[in-house]
Amino acid sequence: MDVINYNHALPPLDAVMPYTPQLIVSILFEGAAVAFLIYAVYLATKWKSWMPVLYWLGGLSAVVVEPIADAVLHAVHAPVGQWNAFTSHGHPIPWHILWAYPWYYGATQILAWPLIARRTLDRKLAWKIFWIGAVWVTLLEQIPILYGVWIYYGAHPFKIGYMPITMVVPNMASVVMTLLAL
């Protein structure tokens, strides 16, 4: 008979969201989202193509996978005191994450739009952007992790700073994969 194994890591549901770091991250992430939306609209107008705005909206719509990624990769946004945007199957997602997605996952394509539109983005430059993106996403997550805005729980034996190495590859790939596909 098969028995369910309950010896796996569970998220710390009593983790408290620190107020000041949450406020700072919220302001920065919302500001970045608005700035990238304004820039995307500017590019859309200049190039007579809505693709930059669609990249922003695509990044925003990708937030629906955050609860899945968090569950699979053992991450949680401290639920106690969190400014909650939505909850999916008991997994709370804060507003700062909702506002992070448009620029976190859309910025590469938005910034590269002039090269894409002129068809001057070559493979060598795309791979440079890929590796710059890898360093960028790894550095970006260090401070929120340090201050408990989001938490990686369970066994993560290999880390870059405070970030489990298992998060570097998915983050890097999701940030620039669309660019490489273009």
Q: Keywords, please?
A:
single chain, 182 residues, mainly alpha, two-stranded antiparallel sheet, two-stranded antiparallel ribbon, 6 strands, 62% helix, globular
What does this structure look like?
It is a single chain. With about 180 residues, the chain is mostly helical. The chain contains six helices and six strands; from the N terminus they run H-H-H-E-E-E-H-H-E-E-E-H. The protein has helices spanning about 20-45, 50-60, 65-75, 95-120, 125-145, 165-180, and strands spanning about 75, 85-90, 90-95, 150, 160, 165. A two-stranded antiparallel ribbon has the order 1-4. A hairpin with a 2-residue loop joins strand 2 and strand 3. Helix 1 (about 20-45) runs antiparallel to helix 2 (about 50-60), helix 2 runs antiparallel to helix 4 and helix 4 runs parallel beside helix 6 (about 165-180). The mean pLDDT is about 90.
Unreliable runs: none
Number of strands: 6
Instruction: Please state the average pLDDT score.
Output: 89
Largest sheet: number of strands, sense, barrel closure: 2 strands, antiparallel
Order of helices and strands: HHHEEEHHEEEH
- Structural class of the helices, strands and pairings? mainly alpha
Shape: globular
DSSP helix fraction: 55-70%
In percent terms, what proportion of residues is strand?
A: 5-15%
Strand order of the largest sheet: 1-4
Distance between the termini: 50 Å
Radius of gyration from the alpha-carbon trace, in angstroms: 18 Å
User: DSSP helix count?
Assistant: 6
